[in-house]
Amino acid sequence: MGQLFSAQDKDHGDSETNFTAYFKKIKKENKIIPEETIHLIEFHLEKGNILGANSVIRDALKNIDNAPINIAVTGESGAGKSSFINALRGVGHEDEGAAKVGVVETTMKRTPYKHPKIKTLTLWDLPGIGTMKFPPKDYLEKVKFQEYDFFILVSATHFTKLELDLAKAIRFMKKNYYLVRTKIDVDLENEKKNKPHTFDRKEILQKMENYYINTLKTNGMDAPQIFFISNNNLSVCDFPRLMKTLVKDLPNQKRHSFVLSLSNITEAAIDRKHKSMQQYIWMEAFKSGLLATLPAVGILRDDVEKLKVKLNHYRVLFGVDDESLEVMAKNSKVPVEQVKKIIKSPYLLETKKMETLDGKLLKFASVNGGLLATGLYFRKTFYLQLLFLDTVAEDAKVLLREAYSKPSSNSTHPQLLTMDKCYSYLMSLTGFVVICFVLFYLGLWEWNKV
Fold first, then answer.
1. What was the pLDDT predicted at 111?
2. Cα 434 → chain centroid
3. Which of 21, 69, 265, 334 gives 234 a disulfide partner, CB atoms 3.0 to 4.6 angstroms apart?
4. What are phi and psi of 67, to 5 degrees?
5. How far is the C-alpha of 323 from the C-alpha of 65, rounded, in Å?
6. 100-122 residue pLDDT tens
């Protein structure tokens, strides 16, 4: 492949232009390889050293795949640490390997929880600093602070003096920390019950945020960030903002795997996963690219198994694989075939579909990002991967919309649904009575004629 690129001197110039143009479009906080790596690749391309550029890209992709991500979660017992860890891992409280919820903390050791899909991601449940009776510095050494990418301090009420001192010690050790206030849904619900006529969700959250910011500043913590979340409903309040912040703050080579670990709680989260995966595929394609135009050849039989592996991998990452669909069908109390009917990815490689994939491939390649215009072309399998990725991401959005379009039996507050129905019925009944009274008062209707 090196000979193909070096056969014509003008080709490496196009390669450099195309590579630079692609990464220039990507925001700094979204890039999955460091700027210095991008510059090194550009340097090799400028010199016509295609083998050198390929080697750097290969190493960069390897680093992305193998870079470990270790997240430390600490806080007092009952603060929702376990629920938060399960939420980040995308597992239910009753699933195998889930962090135990509602159990009194007795352990004095850190407990690791692997992400079920991203094997390089580990969440560490640390004992609360108050349970270990150590000053912050000794506590950090005891739990091996140097092994974590960042710390998340969780509280369900207010942060104790010990926890705030711990946060300052973490910052002194040049590690990032994030303050997370859990069970915000419970607080809002209680406030609504106590003050039904004056309840203002936005105003209450603002007052709570001001209180915490003032408390933190009083303790010498400049410009602190605090995130209000509900472990039962991740799409509300600050959980999406927290995830966006963590993605931005992580090193480039760890960003991709963390993004892929995110749950499909919003369409924005799905789009972020899609863009990160597209960037990864593009880099693979660039490394393995050939010259000229996309060859209009059929899909070879020995390609099919490889394509199946790729497609299934994307389906797993986006939560539209067979196992995920079965869980969704069970929760919705519908046949799994009914769930599959509204999505496309399970059927992409069926025999009948295969006959039309070549045509779709050429059409897709001509409109998706203008990649052909770069002077490089990418092998058909890579174009198919982009087609698979787009389809799987859209399937994830379809399922998300479906989940939000109808009430779930697993809703956090199913009683609210019942109350809404009762309220609607009472309003309709009240309206009917008022109309009857008006008609009777005007002499247009008599009770004895009913």
1. 92
2. 51
3. 265
4. -65, 120
5. 24
6. 776 555 557 889 999 999 999 99
**Burial (Cβ within 10 Å: 0-12, 13-18, ≥19) of residue 49:** middle
Answer yes or no: are the C-beta atoms of 123 and 89 closer than 8 Å: yes
Tokens of 72: 């430390």
123, amino acid identity: L
Longest Cα pair distance anywhere in the chain, in angstroms?
101
**Beta strand pairing call for 121-125 and 376-377:** unpaired
From CA 409, how far away is CA 420, in angstroms rounded?
Answer: 15
CB 261 within 8 A of CB 121: yes
d(CA 435, CA 125): 61
Edge-to-edge order in the sheet of strand 226-228: 111-114, 121-125, 69-75, 150-155, 176-181, 226-228
Q: Which residues pair with 376 in a beta bridge?
A: 291
Residue 413 neighbours by CB distance under 10 Å: 12
Query: pTM to 2 decimals?
Result: 0.78
Which residues, including other chains, have CB under 8 Å from residue 87's CB and lie 6 or more apart? 231, 234, 239, 263
CB-based contact 5:11 (threshold 8 Å): yes
**At residue 448, does pLDDT exceed 90?**
no
Write the CA distances from 408 to 13, 265, 361, 411, integer angstroms: 56, 15, 38, 5
Helix (H, G, I), strand (E, B) or coil at 27: coil
Closest CA to 168 of 208, 216, 231: 216
In this structure, what token pair is assigned to residue 266? 């919003």
The 3-state DSSP class for residue 160 equals: coil
- Beta-strand relationship, 290-291 and 121-125: unpaired
The whole-angstrom separation of Cα 304 and Cα 399 is: 27
**Quick one: how many helices (H) and strands (E) in the chain?**
19, 8
User: Smallest Cα–Cα separation from 6: which of 43, 44, 41?
Assistant: 44
Q: Which residues pair with 113 in a beta bridge?
A: 123
CA atoms within 13 A on the CB side of 365: 24
- pLDDT tens digits for range 293-329: 334 444 444 467 778 889 999 999 999 999 999 988 8
Token pair of 121, please? 């991601």
Reference 273, options 404, 120, 393; nearest CA is 393
Tokens of 124: 């560490």
Whether 276 and 287 have beta carbons less than 8 Å apart is answered as no
Q: Does the structure show a pLDDT above 50 at 373? A: no
Cα(238)–Cα(231) distance, rounded to whole angstroms? Answer: 11
